[in-house]
Amino acid sequence: CHNTQMKGGAAEECPITFYTNRKCPYAQRVWIALEEKSVKYSMVEIPLYGAGGKPGWFMELNPKGEVPVLKHGTNVVVDSNPILRYIDNNIPEPGSLQSSSST
Questions:
Q1: pTM, whole model, 2 decimals?
Q2: Are 30 and 88 in contact (CB under 8 A)?
Q3: pLDDT tens column, 26-67
Q4: What is the 3-state secondary structure (H, E, C) of the chain?
């Protein structure tokens, strides 16, 4: 499960699927967070450009066609900041992504 890379389609063997493109800096933020928290997930690479465009099944997940997208069970979260908050608040893995403030 952890860091499993799939080519197209949903990865059903893991409860968390991360839809990304490695060249997208916003998706890289989420990828780092998943790794930092040792979250078990499947990764699906989405082409950003090309003659075929983005797959129809991906456009159903996120009609804007942007990465990153995180699917956790039936929950679908789009955009890096909401995904980072979702990971920190809803995925019971070690560590927190929130910075601790020193007062």
A1: 0.78
A2: no
A3: 999 999 999 988 888 999 999 888 777 888 899 999 999 999
A4: CCCEEECCCCCCCCCEEEEECCCCHHHHHHHHHHHHCCCCCEEEECCCCCCCCCCHHHHHHCCCCCCCEEEECCEEEECHHHHHHHHHHHCCCCCCCCCCCCC
Q: 42 near 1, Cβ under 8 Å?
A: yes
CA dist., res. 20 & res. 35, Å (int): 14
How far apart are the C-alpha atoms of 5 and 16, rounded to whole Å?
Answer: 12
The yes-or-no answer on residue 14 being catalytic is: no
Report the side by side order of strands in the sheet with 75-78. Answer: 4-6, 42-45, 16-20, 69-72, 75-78
Catalytic residue among 24, 76, 78, 91, which?
24
